Amino acid sequence: MSFHPLRIPVLLSIAALATGLAAPVRAAEPTPPSTAPAFQLPPLPYAPDALEPYVSAKTLGFHHGKHHQAYVDNLNKLVAGTPWAGRSLEQIVVDTAGVADATALFNNAGQVWNHTFFWQGMKARGGGKPTGRLLERIEKSFGSFDAFKEAFVAAAVGQFGSGWAWLVLDGDALKIVKTANADTPLAHGQTALLTCDVWEHAYYLDYQNRRKDFVAAFLDHLVNWEFVASRLK
Ligand code: MN3
Q1: For residue range 104-135, what is the model confidence (pLDDT) as tens digits?
Q2: pLDDT tens digits, one per residue of 141-200
Q3: The model's pTM
Q4: Which residues partner with 170 through β-bridges?
Q5: Which of these, 144, 142, 150, lies nearest to 168 by C-alpha position?
Q6: Is it the case that residue 47 has pLDDT exceeding 60?
Q7: Angle at Cα 7 formed by Cα 68 and Cα 36, nearest 5°?
Q8: What is the largest CA-CA distance in the chain?
Q9: How much is the pLDDT for 1?
Q10: How far apart (Å, rounded) are the C-alpha atoms in residues 115 and 60?
């Protein structure tokens, strides 16, 4: 199943509409080019307090409403008036990966994609063990489900500085990888199945420096295994 997080038709915001109504209209002038943003912040797939007590509403509010929003806003500024504005988020990530003069574009597009994906991999009363074919594949790839958990935590804790821990499909193989900053499996030809954000903003309000406790809570109480399984098909 492909993942299209952000190609949502852009609607005028109430604020923009109000501004438009307030401005005098001069009929003789040509219509200015659209200034509507190319990308929008997708809503969370659950209420901001849905992941409590493992991720507080305060953390989720800041993380989605401020951090994720800022990446969307920065991306919109970077693509405005350029050919990038007409491309999909996925295309921008893939096309700017490793391109020296497109670092800012890659970083913001990557972070928009990574966060949109991160939210979908969690749910209220999630976590625990997957079932069926997904569990079989995890056991086959890592030896046991506990060995998978250990390796995922090790990747998340071992990511020096900001970044992400991932379960990915690489060819036919399930793998655990970690990426730094905005880097993403999408840029490496891998299919992301699950991710945990290990930037400090993801957990510091709730766990301070205890990243390992956050990752353990993520695996035990938050992972949406149905979403992960849907990505395998
Ligand atoms: Mn984040």
Answers
A1: 999 999 999 999 999 999 999 999 999 999 99
A2: 999 999 999 999 999 999 999 999 999 999 999 999 999 999 999 999 999 999 999 999
A3: 0.85
A4: 173
A5: 142
A6: yes
A7: 80
A8: 72
A9: 39
A10: 11
Helices (H), the chain: 14-22, 57-62, 69-79, 89-96, 103-120, 132-142, 145-158, 204-207, 211-217, 225-232
Give residue 120 CA to ligand 1 midpoint distance, Å: 13
Q: What is the Å distance from ligand 1's center to 131 Cα? A: 28
Tokens 């200015």 map to which residue? 32
Q: What are the structural domain ranges in the chain?
A: 132-232
The CATH number of 132-232 is 3.55.40.20
Q: How far is ligand 1, taken at its centre, from the CA of residue 19, in Å?
A: 32
Cα of 188 from ligand 1 centre, angstroms: 20
User: Alpha helix locations (H) across 31-102?
Assistant: 57-62, 69-79, 89-96
The alpha carbon of 68 and the centre of ligand 1 are apart by a number of angstroms equal to: 7
The C-alpha atoms of residue 178 and residue 181 are separated, in whole angstroms, by 10
Q: How far is the CA of 61 from the centre of ligand 1 (A)?
A: 11
